[in-house]
Model the fold of this input.
Amino acid sequence: MESFNIVGIDPGNNIGVSIIEIGLPTYEILSVDTTFIILENNISKDSNDKILDKLNVLSKVVTDLINIYNPVAFAVEAAFMNVRFPKAVMQLSQYVAIIDHTIQLTNPFIKVFKYPPKYIKARTVGSGNADKDAMTLGVSKINEISDKINVNILSEHEVDAVAIGYTALQEIREFPFILYTSY
Done:
């Protein structure tokens, strides 16, 4: 059976990554892997420009994901304004931009899906206002995911990355030719 990979990314200072392997021609989930990356842990404490160093680390992570998993698609949570942390949207926008930029430089044929958090939550949990606990519970109730990975031992960022990747999978299942359309 042939397969392809979708990479889901929950961007931020703490990054969740999911790699969902999809079987063809049925679009069934064959495997789900995740990882959690703390950008701060991957830069020098003596850095003169911590944000630039974090962006460079993130770019390397994305390049490695492309080279290792050869995904047909990346699904990324879009930058959004959180009223509790209004300045966070600026840094989040930089993270999303470097993910986009790195994909375009490394392999411009990879499809990039960007989804707002409320859409991801609605598609995976049924409520656009789900909190972290509701997300973990909701994703764990998706049998085709919970059969492949124990969602309850994942970080909240990994759970979000799985939900983001799964949102893209749902869209691909509904509209398979979306992988072949341009931006």
User: Anything to note?
Assistant: DSSP finds six helices and five strands in the chain. The CA atoms of residues 1 and 121 lie 31 Å apart. The mean pLDDT is 91. The radius of gyration is 16 Å.
